[in-house]
Specification:
- With 612 residues, the chain is α/β, with parallel strands linked by helices.
- Helices cover 36% and strands 23% of the residues.
- The protein is built from 19 helices and 25 strands.
- Helix 7 runs antiparallel to helix 15 (444-452).
- The N and C termini lie close together (11 Å).
- Bound molecules: 5-amino-5-deoxy-1-O-phosphono-D-mannitol.
- 5-amino-5-deoxy-1-O-phosphono-D-mannitol (M6R) binds at residues 304-307, 351-353, 356, 359, 402-404, 488, 492, 605, 608-609.
């Protein structure tokens, strides 16, 4: 999705803004641009393609200015092109605008500006409409940028964040947030705006979160925030403890590989924050009482993509441990389903970014129906987190690669901790069982490290199989949820058509697709389901499939019917997903690498999906 960066201070803004934009590349984009304010007015440079293309385009030009805004665009209205790239300007060129999100009524606003104000448009974008509208209002009000932005957003519907500079208000950036991410950075003698924290980490760790329907005005000396009625708002500064190294590759070839290898640390952090020295789970800051929990008639888990796959494990875990019925849905379906949700529902939203629009909209729908909202988020202060009654943070650190890895494993950990916590309050599990699962979780960081040691084996496997056009993932119980995640990882970065199915469903249709040498990745880690799973492997093997099995160390029986077997460290059935996903992540990574794909920024995808 689009990324916004703005800087005002005493340094030259160009390099700082480009640095920030590079840190937002992970969000996905197809063009980039900057606008600088200097004594000649507003200077705009923009280019289709990568930031490197923009840098090459402006190389050798002396672009001065200590205040400016920059943008990476992910095309929605209008094709990716130099012309459609942001910033867009007002008709007189005095105002430049960058924008993330969608203005839903842009056609109506555009027609009105053409008819009433005789404005000419160069593009089909909604952003140009914002720039022209602010320009008209700015002229009408005698040149006050803040007034013009306020008046403009009153007329705009949709979800957006905008950053605006004007040639006649020096050293000032005005920005507005409505349902799209926006933060301000506070430095000594310099201030920033950005769509996400990594854009600012090189320069500041002090952040102000901007809420919905708030305007922020940055000058080198202060950040002023106003609510929708223009009343000043006092906002505490939040210290971000991520370092710039967290947001850089640190010697790894790709962010995805780095993040796969960061899983032991991420899982450990998430566990240590929630498990006390006495081995008890502490949900500090989460106000669920035993009475609340006993009153819930069901849990509803809603998320998208990988986060949804973590939620599928949540269903298994919560139902098994706490004996509370759990429904699960993808957010884009839930919100239009007229779901059966009320004040007796615990609604769990899972989102790494906390900015996924579908998840946010589903959360709002559940809230409207009276549900209690618990969210699982990685980004502190994100929209999902802020709109929830309680937040369970994952401590994965910044996840930059589009393909989610460490966020997923930490989300799995949260599912276990929530399952155990609810079960304890419900009195549905014994102390021995509770202590046993906690012990299993606590050794997961070391066991993930063990699983990662098999990466050479998996790279070899990828070398044999990278040129296949179709891969099936099968599993039973929690393994069927991991199968979905393995399949998504493979398809999103290697573009191989992959498909996941509960192994028992194969014979109800999908087995018709088995041909000699069809690749089937069989996740078979559940002792209690092993015989059933073994029969499924035999079935596909009988159709000459090439079977790669993922099994627990010591389970050599599986080798008989498997073409290849990848072992994960032995552990309790309940917690295998934290380990069995590791070889699947590595397999997707190596296949994509051998194919020469753009692993961290796969085609057509964005890290944070802030549009519907
Ligand atoms: O930020 P979120 O967790 O809400 O994102 C949800 C999905 O968009 C995300 O998991 C997506 O499926 C990833 N590309 C998967 O790797």
């Amino acid at each position: 999705m689009c990324g916004i960066v703005g800087y005002t201070g005493s340094e030259q803004a160009k390099g700082i803004i480009l640095d920030g934009l590079k840190k937002l590349e992970y969000r996905g984009y197809d063009s980039a641009g900057i606008a600088l304010q200097n004594k000649e007015g507003i200077l705009v440079r923009k280019k289709q393609g990568k930031i490197a293309d923009l840098e090459a385009f402006i190389k050798g030009e002396r672009l001065v200015g200590t205040t400016g805004i920059g943008h990476t665009r992910w095309a929605t209205h209008g094709v990716p092109s130099d012309l459609n790239a942001h910033p867009h300007t007002s008709s007189d060129g005095e105002i430049a605008v960058v924008h993330n999100g969608i203005v839903e009524n842009y056609v109506e606003l555009r027609n009105r500006l053409i008819e009433k104000n005789n404005i000419k448009f160069d593009t089909e974008t909604d952003t140009e409409v914002i720039a022209k509208l602010i320009g008209v209002l700015h002229r009408q009000n005698g040149g006050n940028l803040e007034d013009a932005v306020y008046d403009a957003v009153k007329e705009m519907s949709g979800a957006y964040a905008i950053g605006v500079v004007s040639s006649n208000e020096k050293d000032k950036i005005v920005a507005y947030r409505k349902d799209a991410p926006l933060i301000a950075g506070v430095g000594n003698g310099c201030k920033f705006i950005a769509s996400d924290i990594p854009a600012l980490l090189k320069y500041v760790n002090d952040i102000c979160l901007i809420e919905n329907d708030e305007m922020v005005v940055c000058t080198p000396d202060e950040v002023k925030i106003y609510d929708s009625s223009r009343r000043p708002v006092k906002r505490d500064i939040m210290k971000v403890n991520w370092s710039i190294e967290d947001a850089e590759k640190g010697g790894y070839e790709h962010f995805m590989l780095k993040e796969i290898y960061e899983q032991p640390k991420a899982v450990e952090e998430t566990l240590l924050r929630r498990i006390g020295d006495d081995g008890k789970i502490k949900l500090d800051g989460i106000s669920l009482t035993a009475e609340d929990v006993k009153n819930f008639s069901k849990v509803y888990i809603v998320a998208c993509g990988t986060a949804y796959h973590a939620g599928m494990l949540g269903k298994y875990v919560i139902e098994k441990m706490a004996r509370i019925p759990v429904e699960i849905d993808v957010a884009s379906e839930f919100r239009y389903r007229n779901p059966v949700v009320d004040e007796k529902t615990l609604f769990i939203a899972i989102s790494q970014s906390g900015e996924t629009l579908d998840t946010l909209a589903a959360l709002r729908e559940a809230k409207r129906c009276g549900a209690r909202i618990l969210s699982i988020c990685n980004v502190v202060g994100s929209s999902v987190a802020r709109e929830s009654d309680d937040v369970f943070y994952t401590w994965a650190g910044p996840e930059i690669a589009v393909a989610s890895t460490k966020a997923y494993t930490t989300q799995l950990v949260c599912m276990y901790l929530i399952g155990l916590y609810l079960a304890d309050l419900m009195g549905t599990i014994s102390k021995e069982y509770y202590d046993g699962i906690v012990r299993e979780l606590m050794v997961m960081p070391a066991k993930i490290t063990e699983a990662l040691k098999r990466s050479n084996e998996i790279e070899e496997l990828a070398k044999h199989l990278y040129n296949r056009t179709q891969v099936f993932f099968i599993g039973r119980g929690v393994d069927s949820a991991v199968a979905l995640e393995g399949s998504l990882k493979l398809k999103e970065i290697s573009y191989i058509n992959s498909f996941a199915i509960a192994a028992g469903e194969l014979k109800h249709g999908t087995i018709a697709l088995m041909e000699p040498e069809t690749i089937v990745i069989a996740i078979a880690t559940q002792d209690y389901l092993f015989d059933k799973m073994y029969s499924n492997i035999v079935e596909v093997k009988a159709r000459m499939a090439h079977v790669v099995s993922i099994a627990k160390e010591g389970n050599t029986k599986i080798e008989k019917e498997s073409t290849e077997t990848i072992y994960i460290p032995d552990c309790a059935d309940e917690v295998t997903p934290i380990l069995s996903v590791v070889p699947l992540q590595l397999f997707a990574y190596y296949v994509a690498k051998i194919k020469g794909e753009d692993i961290d920024k796969p085609r057509n995808l964005a890290k944070s999906v802030t549009v519907e």
